[in-house]
Amino acid sequence: MDSEMKRKWLSYRKIFAFIAIISIAVLAIMAVTTNGYYRENPFTDASVKELTEGWTDEKGNLITFPQDADLPAGTPYRVSTIVDDFMSQQGYLLFRTDHTFVKAYLNEQEIYSFGKPEKIKIGKTPGSGWQLVSLEDAKTGDLLTVELTSPYAKYAGVVRPFIIGDKSELISYIYWKGVALTIIALIPLVVGIGLIVFPVLVTSGELRKKYLQVGITFLIIGCWGMTESRTWQIFCYSANYYWVQMLSFMCFALFTPAGVLSLKCMGYIRKEKFYRILLPVDMGTYVLLLILQLTNICDYFNSLWVVHVMMMSNVVLLGIQYFMGTKQNGMAVRVRGVLFFGLVGVGGVLDLLDFYFWDYFGNGFFCRINFVIILIFCGIYATRRAFVAYGENVEREVYEKMAYTDTLTGLGNHRKYDSDAKKLKQGEDTATILYADMNGLKPINDYQGHLIGDKALQIVASVMTEVLGEFSDLYRMGGDEFCALCYQKSKQEVIALCDQINEKLEARSSDFNTPITISYGVVEYHGKWGDDLSECLNWADQEMYKNKKAEYRRRGISRV
Fold first, then answer.
1. How far is it, in rounded angstroms, from Cα 95 to Cα 381?
2. Which residues have a Cβ under 8 Å from the Cβ of 249 and sit 6 or more positions away?
């Protein structure tokens, strides 16, 4: 594995390590926080129990939970029971509500309240969540009453089963009821963070932008999933559910434009014109919903149908354009698109049926399944793109190596020198320039042939590379001329190294029956002092030429 491949592999390993660390950290925080509650509220021998019977409404009718009284919006619904021995011993009552104001009374004395109408600044909902009512002061025979008031007809008169138990047991109950939804929410949350953070470090340009856009989408999905899973209440019982609900709505309404952005990045939107129309329409609808919400013209819950219509219409339009735009592609591409949009569309339809008619699975259940589907297809797309990008990088590296490498010696060529010299000048760094010319190549070529001459050039390149070592870039400038940019080496050190090069070359001269050495010129270049690199290279060339003439005079050779 070469150094470039090794560097890329290390970058990918960092990405995987980061995502793994974030995942472990989140799970650790969940475990530690939950354990903190356990320490404060140790387990008892009692078990959690659902109270589905033994309650009456205001008219004295017996009720079995879950219950839907089908009341008009805003109508209070009161249910009551007599505290028995088991209830008085457990300490806490737990139940879940959706967009409902809650009050609990013990012998008609208020002991619990959730949501204050005067504190609801925008919209009408106090939020949704688990209600944990303390019954520590309750005694056997006391009258326990729970009053539920929802501003929406969908939830007015809806009562879910009450659960009685120790506080720590009930917290554990919340955790396990929501653990699956929490995990589904954590996946896009962690993926989103990874896609946002790491491309900034390891990519650039358009690719970084694409990763960022997809990452933001998954972050939005993760935030919505966490607010909707209700498990977050384990960590922050003092949180303002109302603002959590607002965050949930904002993320949910933003799904469609963010999803369109991601699908464009993933290649599921083939027509640029279609994308340029659809995205502004979705964003405009989203902004309009926010304005209506902020001005209290329209409550967010009453405008959810707009979001649902927007989501389903986008799925249909995107599915049609993808299918029509891939007629020229292979069957596998079209099947993949049909499968993707088909699964997402079916999930959306099932969620709408459950929201408006069934109310069985819970809001957004199939949407969460859709997110997993999107993650899977994102993974498939990312894997395919990674292989394509890897192939393109390998091909580009091969061409770059061919363009910047001298094929005979393996050193950089003149084009490579020009590229490195440009970087050196821009960086204002310091380097020692070595310009060398091989002695003895002409007689070898004339009397032994050019193949032997090529071998001699390869030996010179090999010896120079070996002696100059690291922090030196070597180039064959053409013919028998060589150049080196030596970093962290002074002029005297490079001259000493050149003498070592000649010693090694003279030891190899017997292979050619002709002395082979190098004549060289050495000049220091200081970019920060304003030196001209081209001028320094010319000085090194002139010094080399003088040394070469002196060497030829020493040997009695009249022709250079």
1. 42
2. 293, 300
